[in-house]
Structure formats: structure tokens, C-alpha cells
From TrEMBL:
PANTHER family: PROPROTEIN CONVERTASE SUBTILISIN/KEXIN (PTHR10795)
Organism lineage string: Eukaryota, Viridiplantae, Streptophyta, Embryophyta, Tracheophyta
Family to which this protein belongs: Belongs to the peptidase S8 family.
Protein name: Subtilisin-like protease SBT2.4
Organism: Carnegiea gigantea
SUPFAM superfamilies, per database record: Subtilisin-like
Amino acid sequence: MMNKINTLSLILLVVFIPCLSLLLIAIFAPCLIINPCIAEEERSLYIVLVEGESLAFLHNVASNFDSEAYQAHAKLLENFHNQLLQTTLDSGSYTKIHSFTHLATGFAVHTSHSQAEKLRKNPRVKLMQKDRGAKLMTTYTPEFLKLPLGVWAREGGEKNAGEGVVVGFVDSGINPIHPSFAYDDFTSPTTRNSSRVFSGACEAGPRFPASSCNGKIVSARFFAAGAQAVAALNASVDFLSPFDAVGHGSHVASTAAGNYGVPVVVDGFFYGTASGMAPRAQIAVYKAIYPTVGTLSDVLAAIDQAVKDGVDILTLTVEPDEPPEDTITFLDVFEIFTLLARRAGVFVVQAAGNKGPGPSSVVSFSPWAVGVAACSTDRRYPATLFLGPTLGDGMLKYKLVLAKDAVRVDGSFPRTPPYTEECQHPEALDPIAVSGSLVICTFSEGFFNQTSTISAIFGTARTLGFMGFVLIANPAYGDFISEPIPFPVPGIMIPKTADAKIITQYYEEQTQRTEQGCVIRYAGSASIGEGRVASYQEQLPAVSRFSSRGPDIIDSHRNLADVLKPDFVAPGQQIWAAWSPLSVSEPIYEGKKFAIMSGTSMAAPHIAGIAALIKQHNPAWTPSMVASAMSTTAAKYDNSGDTIPAEGYDLGSLLPSTPFDIGAGLVNPERALDPGLVFMPREGEYVAFLCSLSNVSRVAVEAATGGSCDHPLGHPADLNLPSVTITSLIGSQAVQRSVINVGRKQETYLCAVLPPNGVTVDVSPTWFTIAPMGAQDLVIKLNATQVLKHFSYGEIVLTGSLDHIVRVPLSVLPVSIS
């Protein structure tokens, strides 16, 4: 990233000019609500599932939510919840927060530890967990994913893409006046392209009038009982309405289903036009996270309502940030709710998490919900820092001043790095020295401890009249990670210590000092080039460093699960999308309608929107069929034909990715419309999978899911997924799979195998002919030939006579050859 140096000038190519911020992860975390130091009898939130039939699966009732029978049964369940609490807990010792009646039957209760233990011992309680809190986890990506000439063209163009599909979002709400969500020629009711009946509602409140539901936004609700129970909400930002004061929820919703061709203008600069993946799809909002706090209880209530309302796709970019303690990950109450949502016919999308690049860092665990990793695209925002008197045409040079050299000698401020090096406090700097200069600020302990901010540098620059700033890496802390944002003042980030060293060397050579080290003359000069113009010449894509990785885990002891996670990868780095001008968690974006953000929360809505397109094209498909189609047609190669790389621990390092980085690969929307074959778990197979797990109580599985363990799978790897993951291959193992032909014609498939190292793989039959909607069973026999310390990877490729290609990733750890 560094150009040739000479005595007259130095050109450093880095990322973005008035547009770079130190954002390690662009995911909001306003809400860790459990304090481990609270007194035992202080109240906490508990989530409780109890015996009884939930309404979503009650025959002759579930399909008509407005019927007298549905309402009467819901009332019976709520009365049962109230009675159970009244007869178990002491009067006045609790507050019921939510009753769950649709997906599951249970409630959230605010009570003390001792009272909760009484409740836990009640024989009618099936599952009880303490609320762990919840966190919040575009202009170019439609072109990157080839939607305009691909899927959109098939559906009649961008004005029809996603027609008749409702996408639900559990997040921080929505900004209803944003042009991405404007009324867009919905002159007549949209034709419902689904067997599911949608019946949402618009809950008005502060900054969210009833007219906000306009045909694009078809439903908007908010859930705050849990938040109100555990924290004092701030009325100036914690609006009791679906309004998004943060911006995160608006960003996610517009990425999936925002209107087509919305101009992105920030600080007067035009960055292009934005569009969601399914611009004609409709949006249902379920706000469950607030700037002050977020609770799992409110999130579960939102999921329950979204499924009851009838959404087709449910996007969860908010979830518990840590694996559950003392329980199987798949039996966590959050995972149970997503299982029930899938059973009810909803395609559930989750952000995989932002704890990469370490192994087993995913927070999307279950095979019934799609976990999405994040990758870059080929778009970059290169900026230029010119050092020395030889500058580009028309560029103005400015005096270079190191902040440490401009510290006031008469100040009463602390002599700590935020004051002396980081440009966080204008009172610490000599205005005569820095006014009209390019000031070099240094990454130091304040940034390392995440207490210093780029926003503070902006404030200092404005107050003291900087012509710009340069934030350089500090050898004491190493390279840092930066992500682009629009700067309100000229600035540039130098995140690599090697580049920073060149700048400081030039500065020292040009600066005259006394014997005591005091500056008597600043002779160095520099200029910052334009950095807001995108470049599209980079290799693409690469798994983002922050993106969480597999292998999946089965419990808090980090035992591995025979399930591939993440499922696949989608663009999630430097994504432009809608925002909320209040931007209470990101002051940099205050007053702005768009933000460029990074995180798996940005990747997940890409999959949600693409799922809407697939659902529009194939309305009869189940969620499992949609997930399989995306998986088996995904690409594992980048634009140069090499395996998609993944960013590692070291800044700038790239390694070949594995399925634990990318899942099946980068989603290919057009191929996913017509995958040829799909893998679809049979009715009850997810419960059978849970029952087959070792060291898992079948009684606990039946209690949590309402299913039966009478017919467990022979092995967890027999779950009919479009991938095979075996975390401990001992000798030989046969794995069962079944495929269905969703094509319109009979087709013959030939099986080929790229075996993992240390393993032989045989597929039987080696070829087969399958009729439309016909099924074919496959037996995959794996034999360990070499003991390995690490996983090895391969794939099965089923090639059809009508040009369908079905890829099945293999991830195997051979631990014994006998």
C-alpha cells in the first residue's frame, strides 16, 4: 500500500479521505443488562416456557388469528400463566412482562433469584433461563451480486423484485420518513405471493404517526416491557414507538428491501444510488432494542408476534451475544423460538456474529436458522496523503504539526495520551501552532481502551481550525483496524505502523528543534487527496476479519457440533444504506440519512432480501428449500478463480478460506432460483437431530420443543442438510442424505467427490435419474485413512445433464482410522 519514496515527496495509498473512522465492529452494543455483582434478591428478568399447546400449531385455530377460537385459547393460556405465577410466587414479588402464546407457551417475569428458584421447581415449567440481554449485531451490492441483469430481470425489473413477500425485522426500529421506505406506487394492494396470511398492525407513538405504515412499511410494532423493567428509559432517545433512534434497524431494513434508486448524499457529496436486494418487498418492523437497553424477553416477544403476523422472512440482527451457560446451545430459549418460527414456515436469517477471526466464534448455532458471515466487495475508497513540497496539480500544501509538539505548556489538563497525543481535547493544544495546519494525531491508550473517539478529533479540528488531521498507528500498540465513514473535516487514517514510521521519519527530518527538543520551526508539509470516489479494481471478495467463524459449538464447554456454521457469506463490509438522523449511538452520523457500516448485521439482510426474491419466484418452497438452494449454488471462488480468501489476525493478511469461514460460499442469487436439487429435512427431523446429540437429555429436548424422541437420528450428521460436517470421524461412518428435484424436467446426475485430506469418500449411487419432484436417497460413506489434528475439507459435486451443479461442502476431522 506504499508507493516509492524519494527526497521530495511521499505518496501513501490508504483507505478513504474525509471518510475513515476507527470502527472495529460496526454493530451497536447498547445493552448488556445483567450485572454479575447485584445482590441476590435484586430482581432480574427470567424467561419461562411451560406446558401447554401453543397456538401456532393448534389444529383449526392457528390459521385464523382473529377468530373467536384463537382469541379464547390465547386468553386461556394467559390466564394459566397468571395462575401459575400467583400460586407459585409470593404476592408482590414479581411482575409478568410478556405472555408468549403463539410460537411457545410461556412468559417473561421480573423477580428475584429466590423466587425464580421456586418457579424452576414447579413441575409445569419446561424450560427456564435468565435473560442475558440482547445486542444489535446500499449503493453497490445489487450490482456486485448481479441482480439487475439476473434475478430482477426475471421478475420484470427492479420495480417488481420481491413483489408479494413480507420481510420482518427484529431490530432497533425504522426511520419511516426515509426515502428508502417511501410510498412507491402502491396504488392497489400488493398481490400476496405466499400461502401465509399477513395481518400486521401499525402502533403509533413518538415520531411514528399511524400514517408511517404506507404500503411499503406494512406493519410496525414495538416491545419495551422488558426494557422498562430493568432500566430507567430516557424519553429523549428511548421512544416508545417503532421509530429508530439508532439507525441500525433502518440500515438493515433498507439493505434487504429498501426502494430502488434512492440517491445517497452525505455532506453534499453524491455517493451513488441505493437499493435493497428485493426493492418491491414489503417491510414489517418489530422494535425490541433501545439505545439504553435491550432484553431477550422483548426480542422473543417480537419474534412471537412477527410469526403470528405472518412474515415470510424474519431477519434477526439482534441476539444474545454469548453462548448460553449450562445448557446445550441448540436448547437455548432463543434457539427454540427460531426453531418454532421455522416450523411455522418462516425463513429465519441471523447475523453470524462479529467476534472473528478466532475459531468457534459464531453466535448463530442452529441448523434451522441461516447464519450469515460477512465479506468485502471489490469497491474501495482509496485516499492519498502527499508528503513534501511536490504536490498534485491544484492541491494546496499545509504545514505538518505533530500533536505532541503542540501541547500547551501552561495547561492544567492531565498529561495523558488523550490530551497530549490523540487530539481528543482542544484545550490541550496551542491554537497558534495547529491553526491552519495538518495535525498528526497518534493512536494511543485512549483508542486502545476504546474511550477515545474519532468524533473528538473532529471537534478539536473544528475548534482550533485544523486544515485536516492524520491519525497514525503507534508502534507501542501495533496496527489498528479502520472502517470508512464520511468525515466532516479533511482527514486520513494510517492504520499500519510501517506507514506511520515513514510519516514520522519525514516529519522529524523536516522539523527543527532546540537541544531540549522544543520545536522552533515546522518545515514539513503535506496534503490529503480526494477519498470519496470509489474504486472497483480490488480482488473480490474476502471474508471480513471481524466475521465470526466456525466450527459450531454444542455447549458452553465449546464441544463441537456436527453442523456447518456459518451457512454462507454475503457482503457485509462498507455497506451504504439508510440511517436515522438522530443516530444516538454514532454521533458521527447525526443529522445524516445514510451511513456506511460494516458487520454481519449488514450481511444478514442481503440474504433476507435474496430469500424474498427466491420466494417470489418459487412461492411454494419451504424455508429449508430456500436455504438449500442458496447453499448448493454458492461460489467458493473469487473473481480471479482462487478460493475466496479470509482476513486473519494480522492487518492485511489473507489466507484461503474454509467452510468454517464462508459456509458453502458467496451466495449466487440467479443460480439459487433454479438449483436443480434441494435438501429438505423431513417433518420432525430437527427434533430427531436434537435427540441424537450425545449427553443431551431427551426429556429436556421433548420439554423444550414439544416434539418426540421416539425416532432419533442414527448420528447428528444424518440431519438432511446441504453440507456434511463430522467433528470426530472414527474409522468409517455412513451419512444419509436425500434430495428432491425441483426442476421442471427429468434429469440425470453424476456424483463426483473431492475428498478431504486423510479421508476417502464414496457416494452411492454414483449416478441417478430423478423425475420432477422426485426424491433420491444418497449414502455417503467416509473412511479415515490418516489421523489429523485439524479439520480437512472437500466437497461432493452432483452434475446434472441439464447443466445444474449441486455442491455439498465436506468438513471432517479424522481422529482415528479404526
